[in-house]
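Bug report (template v2)

What were you trying to do?
Predict the complex of my protein with coenzyme A.

What happened?
Run completed; filing so the output is reviewed.

Input:
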Amino acid sequence: MKVTKNSSCMVKPAERTWSGRLSLSELDQTGMTTHVPIVYFYTQPSVNWNNVIQKLKTSLTTTLVNFYPLAGRLVSISGGRLELICNGAGVQFTEANTDVRLADLDNFSDHPIIDQLIPSFDYRRTPIEEMPLLLLQVTRFVCGGWSLGFFISHIAVDGQSSLHFITEWTKVCRGEPLGPPPYLDRKVLRAGAPAMMTTRFNNNVEQHYAQFSPPPTLIGQSNNENERRKETAITMLKLTDTLVTKLRNKANENRKNKADRGFTRYEAVTAHIWQTACKIRNHEPEQKTSVGLCIDLRHRMNPPLPENYFGNAIVDVITKGTSGELVSETLGYVCSKIRDTIEKVDDQFVNSVIDFLKNQEDISKFQDLQLVNDCEGAFYGNPNLGVISWLTLSMYGFDFGWGKEIFTGPGTIDAEDGDFLILPSRREEDGSLIVASCLQVKHMEDFKRVFFQSIEED
Ligand code: COA
């Protein structure tokens, strides 16, 4: 089972595009600062392979005319801060082939080959100003099928913006015209502007900005060094429609105010993951634990951000509790904790987070990987976790002109203990969900068992 990389080049915008420095918002430069890995699989195209490669490249050059920041590079300014230089340096495009057949990947998502189909690079050896913001890898399988791996900078874009770019690229590749340009001006999230207001939460930073304080450590340990080094395993857990409904019913039973909208799939599944993790990690009842949530703020701002805002329109927030509380309380109670945290994210909250960050001399401690200092960032492993939703992202149905993908999945590069991702199953119509889970090896089997068993319990 071998993947051979044959060639690599930089694909640049087809026309001259604006050049200069684009200020990034504080939300771009904090939280996840690495690249996001994802791969799409396709069956054999009806046209000659050289035509496929040629069409992918030419349509990419056209698409980059509107999405030119993706062809730029980052530059470090000061205090861990970065700017995006729009210089048309290009997107890395690698051609590869493999001796594997698509049919050999019967369970695509768990197959060890996945990470070889997604381009990547070593952050420690690559100067920041040389890191492409988007790396692509087209791999041809021996059966004629192919895959397209993406490695896209989370400093440049969030999930919704990435998918906007891919959607436009597929349209151009199919011969349709380039749509309206993305909204590139990050000033709507106050990029480049000084801190503006006295934040309403200034006097209680710890409580309101839990995401900027170190997460709890295990009782008896003064830091997370031990937990960080433990070997991890990754598993894709499938929740059928029936199991999702059961969980949701369980979450919503005994709701005091029946007029409220019930808990959502995300809230119910996240609460269930948190309860399960607390059960199987063998914590003391008084163990503090927190869960990181990632919130799309496009509709939470006043006025709402333009729908096609291109950048990071997300903010991380934290829900906290103790293991004893989480294990003994109902699913509905845990859902309420999650809902309360999500609901506090409004225009004023986001602006105060931005101001809090603007007032920091050095923001690198709020980055998951400090690209400038090459240090590790916050760790949400045992006793904590992070649960990201891809449930509302339109991540399926990408047709470059030779048919829609047969499978899509996240790569596992950089996944850490406590990382969870909830995504819709690719067979959208069946209502099932996939929970991509990364945990310490010694916890994984127990997690899987308790995760499914406790849904069935009354
Ligand atoms: N398409 C389809 N369904 C949508 C939708 C969309 N664009 N937007 C919302 N919905 C549905 C949800 O699926 C949910 O339905 P469900 O109860 O059947 O699951 C319902 O409308 C309510 O959605 P929402 O208000 O978003 O609540 P939630 O609990 O599902 O999710 C958040 C809460 C905070 C996770 C979500 O609002 C959010 O911000 N997601 C961020 C996603 C993201 O950007 N991820 C990538 C990060 S890079």
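What did the reviewer find?
The radius of gyration is 22 Å. The mean pLDDT is 92.
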